[in-house]
Amino acid sequence: MTEKLKHSKRDEDIFVKALAARRHHRLAPVVLLLLALLTTGGVYAALAPSTANAETVSTADIETGKKLFQANCATCHGANAEGRDGVPSLVGVGAAAVDFQVSTGRMPMQMNGPQARAKPAQFNEEQTAALAGYVASLGAGPAIPTDEQVDAELGDASNGMALFRTNCAMCHNAVGAGGALSEGKFAPALWETSERNIYQAMQTGPQSMPVFNDANITPEEKRDIVSFLVEQREGSAGGNALGALGPVSEGLWAFAIGLGLLIGAAVWIGAKSS
Amino acid sequence: MAQQQRPTAVGKAADYLDQRTTIGVLVKELARKVFPDHWTFMLGEIALFSFIVLIASGFFLTMFFDPSMALVRYEGEHPANMQGQLMSAAFHSTVEMSFEVRGGLLMRQIHHWSALIFVGSIVLHMFRIFFTGAFRKPREINYLVGLTMLILALAAGFTGYSLPDDVLSGNGLRIIDGVVKSIPVIGSFMSFIVFGGEFPGHHIIPRLFTLHIFVIPGLLLALIGLHLFLMVLQKHTQYPGAGRTDKNVVGYPAAPVYVAKMTGNFFIISGVLTLMGATMAINHVWNYGPYDPSPVSAGTQPDWYILFVDGALRLMPGPGWEWVIGGYTLSMNLLIPGMILPGILFTLLGAWPFLEARVTGDHREHHVLDRPRNRPVRTGVGVALLVAFVVCALAATNDLIATHFSLDIFAITWALRVLLVVGPLLAFWVTKRICLGLQRRDRELVLHGHESGRIVRFANGEYVEVHTPLEPEEVWLRTYHQAPRPLDIKPAMDARGVRRKGYKSDRRWQRLSQFFYEDRVEPATPAELAAAHSHGKHDELEAKTPATSGSAVRRRR
């Protein structure tokens, strides 16, 4: 993408020099108009959601992806991914959605239920990329984020915490330990979700999750959230986190371990004399 | 003693004190005081010693806690997710004492674990008191003192939970605010008084702090003194057993037996609490972040002892229960689970000793405890209350149950709603049946003895099974009690056929009494015992088989 920008910049320079020489030419307004169109188009091309990784996915891959799609996904999503009642159309969902659903094993779906559950992925990386490429070729949608975009090291965990608790914690729990939704649906725990998948989930809003687009939460802020969640995995100060589920698990352990030991001791002390 | 011992340093000091205070009399009296022994008598001790740990660790925490709601920015390095965040000084000092003060986090965790154990042991202690009838005369007042301490312990726990001013504690306060506002007429004024204006205001943390470190522990300390004083004065109750009556206490002297035991138990308790504080993380406020009224995260629950109120709120249906009367809103959906339900629970618990004495017509002193089976209705009601408490507490954890057992949260709510009504009734009925069954079994055992497994065949071909009679101690345990009968009341008309005043009230009490004692199993009387020992061909058998002399024999045809 950056290369494209540079390229259009160099074009621009040439145009500007040519214009400087003949700025009063009668065709100048036409050229200016063309220039304006070109700039707008260029900027749009650079900023608009692109068909993901168009450079890396070849036509052959897309063909492979199409075959995989027709063998594994078309039964529900339709031969051309157009969807049907209760099954979403995949035109325009983008490579990120496919990569999220397939790499976490949610798709192909194991069985009908309140929501598709994560399971060991059914396709390897190449196949997933091919599928993503094929679906991305059907219509523009969010691209798979780059490694830099999801690098927890580069994010600000403190800002991530503030964003997480405002936007995510009501379903996913304060530290991402997961939570319940209506009718058997749930927000999964995020302890083991990869950084890329966390980012993609925000981008594409899988299942009950809302979409947090780049206008809502910017890519940098998304990375901050990833950074906050990754930090939580390092465990907590002060001992075993007991599942980080809050007062309920604490109460349970207070009875199971604390009162268990103390009553055990009381029985022992009481038995010592009689 | 061959030679006079020289007074030791301790002896000299004790003598010095005694000459000035005559404390020796008290020590002599207390040291010889006899206490009965049983592990359940130590549940209250767990509460007492965890309270001491609470005071010690709480004292440490007050050195570093700043009960202020002033807005400050966190400049510390740890934890990373707090860097540069805006927060109240209360929250700031909580995080700072956890990461900057040596031993601060350990002390916080010990304090919090101790609080959970403190309330837990009080509740268990209360179960023991309730199920064994230790609240009966003369201990009704001490029972009320204990119940007051339970309520104060809940208040201490809740105020402490709210102090760090994190999102979790703020959510809790918001619920309290809602419940207070639901009180008719005075609700909104009360809320404004409590929070010093609109929630959350700037006053609540300092106010809770004063309550938490001064008022509540002060009251608790005074009541603990009263509780123990009354316990010593009235002497401790004892479990039934041979030789134990309402007129004696069978046990060991306070010194040296209980002094040693209690000291040991104190070290065990403080050791366990410290171990928990050192190895098990609790209430990491920086996970929730400084309080902000907008976010409520999944898994937001109070500490376990408030769960039942939270659960009742979650079970209460919302729509249709908020009535607008003459322009005033009456939120029954908050008032019933938040105020009325706990009110009923604590009123029932407080009234129980007096209620039970009234329907039993009992004015005697009791120092020997009941076996729970011998009071089927009391035990049944206790278990029913326990079931209701547990159902409500489970309802507060509905989201965790849903995720951990892959269940539908709405289905859980409905199941628990049904269970809240059916569960206690069913538990009462089942418990009462089990108690009556156990009593029948006791009676059977006393009258017929243990099955020995020996079958004896007589010369004429008749078989009998030999039963071993119970030891006197075993018989005592199963026959010492009296099965109370329903109240007798005077007839509705007096001798001259005039309607008696107060008959209706008497009749109502009698009905309640019948509910308590209509179904009962009388313990075996000495006459029945004697009859059982001599019925059938027993004498004949004894003559024939000297080895089984004294055995109760039941014929089997």
UniProtKB/TrEMBL annotation, chain A:
Domain of life: Bacteria
Keywords: Cell membrane, Electron transport, Heme, Iron, Membrane, Metal-binding, Repeat, Respiratory chain, Translocase, Transmembrane, Transmembrane helix, Transport
UniProt modification remark: Binds 2 heme c groups covalently per subunit.
Positions contributing to heme c 1 binding: C73, C76, H77
Protein's membrane topology: Multi-pass membrane protein
Cellular location(s): Cell membrane
Cellular component aspect of the GO annotation: plasma membrane
One Pfam short name: Cytochrome_CBB3
Enzyme Commission number(s): 7.1.1.8
Reactions catalysed according to its record: a quinol + 2 Fe(III)-[cytochrome c](out) = a quinone + 2 Fe(II)-[cytochrome c](out) + 2 H(+)(out)
Residues bound to heme c 2: C168, C171, H172
A GO molecular-function annotation: quinol-cytochrome-c reductase activity
EC class: translocase
Record note on quaternary structure: The cytochrome bc1 complex is composed of a cytochrome b (QcrB), the Rieske iron-sulfur protein (QcrA) and a diheme cytochrome c (QcrC) subunit.
Designated name of the protein: Cytochrome bc1 complex cytochrome c subunit
Higher taxonomy: Bacteria, Bacillati, Actinomycetota, Actinomycetes, Micrococcales
Automatic annotation (TrEMBL), chain B:
EC number(s) reported in the record: 7.1.1.8
Cofactor: heme
Topology versus the membrane: Multi-pass membrane protein
Keywords of the record: Cell membrane, Electron transport, Heme, Iron, Membrane, Metal-binding, Respiratory chain, Translocase, Transmembrane, Transmembrane helix, Transport
Keyword rRNA processing: no
Gene Ontology molecular function, alphabetical: metal ion binding; oxidoreductase activity; quinol-cytochrome-c reductase activity
Reaction(s) this enzyme catalyzes, per UniProt: a quinol + 2 Fe(III)-[cytochrome c](out) = a quinone + 2 Fe(II)-[cytochrome c](out) + 2 H(+)(out)
UniProt-listed GO biological process terms: respiratory electron transport chain
Keyword check for Translocase: yes
Name of the featured protein: Cytochrome bc1 complex cytochrome b subunit
Native organism: Promicromonospora soli
High-level lineage: Bacteria, Bacillati, Actinomycetota, Actinomycetes, Micrococcales
